[in-house]
Amino acid sequence: MIFNLFKCLAVQLVVGIILLGVMSVLLCISYSKEYALRFLEITVLDMNGLGVWCCGVGLMFYVTKHGKEIAQDLNMVFTPSKAIFDVISKIEKSTLHKKGIFITGPVTLVGVFLTFHYTAPHYGASAFIIYAAVVFIYYTASFLLYHFCMIIAAFNSVYRDAEGLQIEKDVNGFNLENVSSYLSLTSTVGLLAIYFGFRGTVTAGFSYSNPIWEYFLVTPLILFLPGTFFYNFYPRHVLKKIFQYKIFSKLLSITTKDDLDIKNSILEIKEASLLNSQIAPFADYKNIPSYLVGIMFLLNVVFAHDPAIKEFIAKFLQID
Question: Any idea which UniProt keywords this protein has (predicted)?
């Protein structure tokens, strides 16, 4: 799983370098060497273009290609049922671009609307490329948001039908580890993409017809940050609650069974406990305060050591 993710990121990093190289050569031929170098300076250094492309587009290609694998893992954990079929269907749909138009369409239009009110830090073909790149990144982020929302909806279906779910016998804990790892890896790369994208828009050097539009640079944080955090938390919270419920229900039923049934119930409790232990502890809502403290600490470090972010936050909050 990690190999496949880094493979997608590496491939898109190479693709990003090639695209920038080709466009720079064309701009050099059409305009001048200085014009092309200024384009590279804006896209690579000011806008963190390679970081945004690598993390954002790389993650998009990863979820479209490998997102269905967690559906297969869940299918190996729970016995087939209508509820599980619905969950698998939602997860598979979350990897299809055409199914996400109800989210990707409006969010991309928001990106188009906001970008229309930004004046690019360059002119000519370079400005057009920058606008197109910003809109495409909005689409990429909106598709990832759609994927995250569909995963959340899928696990919400699991939670609603928890009582009717049955755990497969001889379940391999590796399947649950895959689910947990997928959530952690994709949300982490997603957060990196959000950071690179947000910082890139702050340092890009856009100018505005009205100062109010500068405050809308926080739009990506508002749109994508909460969903990414909740996506990392909720599915594992659901799985943990399901296994805890199964353990508790088996314990309650032991007193009404004979010796053989008790032995079987103990084995089922042991198996459910083992599966429960495979789910990362982040799923426990009691740990959220400590994670919030960690997030605040990280923001404090970024605020202290990233002058561009510090300047924008100070301006946004009107701090002298």
Answer: Membrane, Transmembrane, Transmembrane helix
